[in-house]
Automatic annotation (TrEMBL), chain A:
InterPro entries xref list: NqrB/RnfD (IPR004338), RnfD_bac (IPR011303)
Signal peptide start-end: none
Protein name as annotated: Ion-translocating oxidoreductase complex subunit D
Pfam families given in the database record: NQR2_RnfD_RnfE
Modified residues (FMN phosphoryl threonine): 180
Domain of life: Bacteria
Species this chain originates from: Marichromatium bheemlicum
Enzyme class: translocase
Cofactor requirements of the protein: FMN
PANTHER family found in the cross-reference section: ELECTRON TRANSPORT COMPLEX PROTEIN RNFD, ION-TRANSLOCATING OXIDOREDUCTASE COMPLEX SUBUNIT D
Alphabetically ordered keywords of this record: Cell inner membrane, Cell membrane, Electron transport, Flavoprotein, FMN, Membrane, Phosphoprotein, Translocase, Transmembrane, Transmembrane helix, Transport
From TrEMBL, chain B:
Broad enzyme group: translocase
Keyword Transmembrane: yes
Coiled coil regions in record: none
Protein name per Swiss-Prot or TrEMBL: Ion-translocating oxidoreductase complex subunit E
Source species: Marichromatium bheemlicum
Segments traversing the membrane: 21-38, 44-62, 74-92, 98-118, 130-151, 183-205
Function: Part of a membrane-bound complex that couples electron transfer with translocation of ions across the membrane.
Keyword check for Membrane: yes
Keyword terms of this UniProt record: Cell inner membrane, Cell membrane, Electron transport, Membrane, Translocase, Transmembrane, Transmembrane helix, Transport
InterPro entries in UniProt: NqrDE/RnfAE, RnfE
Length: 348, 233
């Protein structure tokens, strides 16, 4: 048996929480920039507000728990939670809802369970669902991509909308907001329109997904591939989740292409790509065994399709991730790899 | 029982140390389902207290006549009779409240807190003690229901004791408070998840207060010890 000789110095790969989180933040950049490009400065304002609130909430709870504040803040996990939350919410959400969401995520979902590493649920998605259930109107009030509305909201306009819910003069809500592509698809399909009719009459469709949304998803895909390349995440969860979603979408599309959208639409219109690479792969709340990760991802993908098609909400990544978070410990339990030298008695 | 507890300790057990909702975690089904507002919580709590007191007294009176082999069916029969009576009373006198609480009043039969007290206390104690126990346990349960209802109502729709006149009569209209018309409540507080989160927070609060009390007691004890020391030396 031969083995490769590697000369010293043997420097181990640095694998610290703050490095991982920094990689994730870096990988989120293209997607966030694309969102700012299509939806305006409100996205940036939300990111800044959410990060500020999250860091304050984390510091507050750590002080109450009499734990060292700076190391926990320095691991950047609260910042990642805040950014993921900020890009999930509508770009003009009132600031106090962002505050509520971040308090819910950091205080209730993360720190009350013991802080980073102990929380069974993804804090960002739990906060998103908390707000979606509590304030359904505000949380579905999405801006139209700028290239559709033709209205260029300046930074101060966006700030005024978020802080005071004041629109710039001469603009009303109907002009700047639009249904998200998934929302539009759901409403129209419920009205017995066929896919071809929907695509003809609505300006929301782009080349392969929702207009604007498809490029945002593509940018998140780029970031996701970067994470794979840096080995911050493994391929198991993203690939199995997208495969789970795509296989169901393709099956139903083949059965009836007029009532089920083209499979690529499912990938590139909502949060599927973002969810697959950045949310489902959260190392704390996901499964840890390789086989378990395949099951976990596939179930998330399938759940996303089921809720999008037959459920009450147009997009479902947050619900699917939270549902599978509950199942993750059980999946881990049943997929533990065999320890070398143990088991296999039946094979003998 | 080696030493009989006094009435006062029965009351503190029921209200605090052995609170059926916060410590024993019994009767959670009506607790979680009906506490969408303080008024509903209070109504449900009073109904449960009435059944608890009546069943405790009855079971205590017949405790020496019932053979142990059949005690549980007998307890359930007694409780079910009183629940039916209470349900008919509410239907007759508080019809609107009856419409709100609806299904949950018959379900008082299955409230584990009631059969729990019957089995653990009333079937082993004198009538007067069973009566006090029923009142204290019921009051503790009612207070938690009302607190949780108030919490959820405030967070969810920004009001307190909304529709209190359904339960307490026209004079109680003034009891209703609102946080203002532009208050946007978090709907989740009124939906089922809010019940679980709210109950968790209440239990945490109780444990926190217990911790403070025990720390204060410890401080008092050590202060007394250090005061006593100089006189010894």
């Amino acid at each position: 048996m031969t083995s490769t000789l590697i000369s010293s110095p043997h420097v181990p790969r640095v694998n610290r929480v703050d490095r991982v989180m920094l990689q994730v933040l870096l990988a989120l950049m293209p997607g966030v920039l694309a969102m700012i490009w299509f939806f305006g400065w409100g996205v940036l304002v939300n990111v800044i507000l959410a990060v500020g609130f999250a860091v304050l909430a984390e510091a507050l709870v750590l002080l109450l728990r009499r734990r060292p504040v700076l190391p926990a803040l320095g691991d950047l996990s609260a910042v990642v939670t805040a950014v993921l939350f900020a890009i999930s919410i509508p770009p003009t959400l009132p600031w106090w809802m962002t505050l509520l969401g971040m308090l819910f995520a950091i205080v209730l979902v993360k720190q009350l369970y013991g802080g980073l590493g102990y929380n069974p649920f993804n804090p960002a998605m739990a906060a998103y669902v908390f707000l979606l259930v509590s304030y359904p109107v505000a949380m579905t009030n999405w801006l139209a991509p700028e290239l559709l509305s033709g209205i260029d909201l300046s930074f101060s306009d966006s700030l005024a909308m978020i802080l005071h819910q004041v629109l710039p003069a001469g603009v009303d809500w109907d002009a700047v907001t639009a249904a998200t592509p998934l929302d539009e698809m759901r409403t129209q399909l419920d009205e017995q329109l066929t896919i071809a009719e929907i695509r003809d009459q609505s300006a929301l469709w782009g080349v392969f997904g929702g207009r604007g949304w498809e490029w945002i998803s593509a940018a998140f895909l780029l970031g996701g591939l970067y994470l794979l390349w840096r080995r911050t995440i493994t391929w198991h969860i993203p690939v199995s989740m997208l495969a789970g979603l795509l296989s169901l979408a393709t099956l139903f599309w083949l059965i009836d292409p007029q009532t089920h959208p083209f499979p690529a639409f499912h990938l590139f219109s909502g949060a599927a790509i973002l969810g697959a690479f950045f949310i489902a792969t959260d190392p704390v709340t996901a499964t840890t065994t390789r086989r378990g990760q395949l099951i976990y991802g596939a179930c998330i993908g399938a759940t996303v399709f089921v809720i999008r098609t037959w459920g009450g909400y147009p997009d479902a990544v947050a619900f699917a991730v939270l549902l599978m978070n509950i199942a993750a410990p059980t999946i881990d339990y049943y997929t533990q790899p065999r320890v070398f030298g143990h088991g296999r008695e039946r094979a003998r | 029982m080696a030493k009989e507890q006094g009435y006062l300790s029965l009351v503190t057990e029921g209200l605090w140390h052995n609170n059926q909702a916060l410590v024993a975690l019994l009767g959670l089904c009506p607790l979680l389902a009906t506490t969408t507002s303080a008024t509903n919580g209070l109504g449900m709590g009073l109904a449960t207290t009435a059944v608890l007191v009546l069943s405790n007294v009855t079971i205590s009176l017949i405790r020496n006549l019932v053979r142990p082999e059949v005690r549980l069916p007998v307890f359930v029969l007694v409780i079910a009779s009183f629940v039916t009576a209470v349900e008919l009373t509410i239907q007759a006198h508080f019809y609107e409240l009856y419409l709100v609480l609806g299904l949950f009043i018959p379900l008082i039969v299955t409230n584990c807190a009631i059969i729990g007290r019957a089995e653990a206390f009333a079937s082993k104690n004198r009538v007067d003690r069973a009566l006090v126990d029923g009142l204290a346990m019921g009051a503790g349960f009612t207070l938690v229901l009302m607190a949780l209802g108030a919490l959820r109502e405030l967070a969810g729709q920004g009001t307190l004791f909304y529709q209190a006149h359904l339960l307490l009569g026209e004079a109680a209209r003034g009891l209703t408070m609102t946080l203002g018309d532009d208050f946007q409540g978090a709907l989740i507080a009124i939906l089922p998840p809010g019940a679980f989160i709210g109950l968790g927070l209440l239990i945490a609060l109780k444990n926190l207060v217990d911790k403070w009390l025990s720390q204060a007691a410890k401080r008092r004890a050590s202060a007394a010890a250090s005061n006593a020391e100089p006189s010894l030396s």
